[in-house]
Design a protein that fits this description.
The protein is an alpha+beta fold. It has helices at 5-35, 92-103, 119-130, 146-156, 159-170, 173-186, 208-220, 222-228, 293-309, 397-402; strands at 44-45, 65-70, 78-81, 86-87, 114-116, 143-145, 205-206, 232-235, 239-242, 253-261, 265-276, 279-290, 311-317, 322-327, 333-338, 342-347, 352-358, 369-377, 380-388. The protein is elongated, with a radius of gyration of 37 Å.
Amino acid sequence: MPLTQRQTFRRRRIVVFSAVGVALATAFYLPMTLLAPLAEVSATVIAPATPELAEPELMFPSYGASAIADIDRPGVLAHAGSDDALPIASITKVITALVVLDAKPLGADEAGPTITFGPADLDYYYAQQAQYGLVWPVFDGQTLSQREVMNVVLLASANNYSQSLARWAYGSDEAFVAAAAKWLSANGLEDTTLTEASGIQATNKSTAQDLTKLARLAISSPVVAAIVSTPSTEVPGLGTVSNRNQLLGIDGVDGIKTGTLDDDWACLLFSTDVTIGEETKTLVGVVIGGPDHPTIAAAIRALIKDATEGYNEVTLARAGEEFAEYDTPWGDDTSAIASDTVTRVVWGYDKITLTVDADPMRLTGAGTSAGVVHVLIGTESIDIPLEFSEEVDDPGPWWRLTNPQILF
């Protein structure tokens, strides 16, 4: 039956609208499909292995009090013995030197002003001699530089020179003691007390923990650190002045100060550099109240050895190690890998945590940033950069046309 004019018009209209629809679909669908950004591909994180650390085993002496610390870490690594403040003998002289430098600062290589000795200094000599304190000769009118006097104080441990130095800097014994109290408080040595400048009195006291703080202050002073690491020096009118520290130069020991009271109270405040892996660690420590210096020297050597063995060089990441994987819907894959090998020296009690923060990915080139691994070692934070191991290319027109579900 022939089509009516109305039917013919209707069919023509359907064809036209269909063609327009196809044209519109082509105009919008194809560009959207071929040009639209691909959906992000999330990372599948590979749980990183946490290094296992052996607990340190430190052998401390059974007498007095002792402690050892790492200058790059707060507090002490370990301590033993009494927690009470104990007599510190001539370790006092380290405090005296630092308090004097507070009032009379010296440059690292400066001799400083001239000190002229007089009757008061002779009185110190005779008073110390009467108490069997360690003294060095002095005479009325003698002149030495501040640096030379500090050499006699810290190397020869001359009690009379320590008192003379303190009085020269502050005008009187009482003024020095007051200044020392303020200095101790300002530097956080709350458990340390000084009643005089030489250390001959047992009323000069401190704890092992406080003395590790003092050791940090001593080696951070260029003047004090240089003097206490010197085996010997020449002082005009006095000849060769030798360091009394029996451990100087042994096991990396480069300071700091001996102390002795009577015949059965030996002390040593020490510092040493030890090598673990490719890192150098500076350790400071103290033994207070040992029976004699050879005994505490042996104990300190054993303590340094144990502390050194308490460190571990651990590998946190190896170059090329995978921390996350990416699988794309179009069949390409890549990984987030460490760009470099990262190691750290850690103490045996340190807690280590690793958290992978891998970036989502669309298209990428090999070697571009893929995120980080956040590492926490105790209180230290480290970020290890990650990079993509392989290039991920566009899947191409055919895949895009046949997989529109991933498009935005």
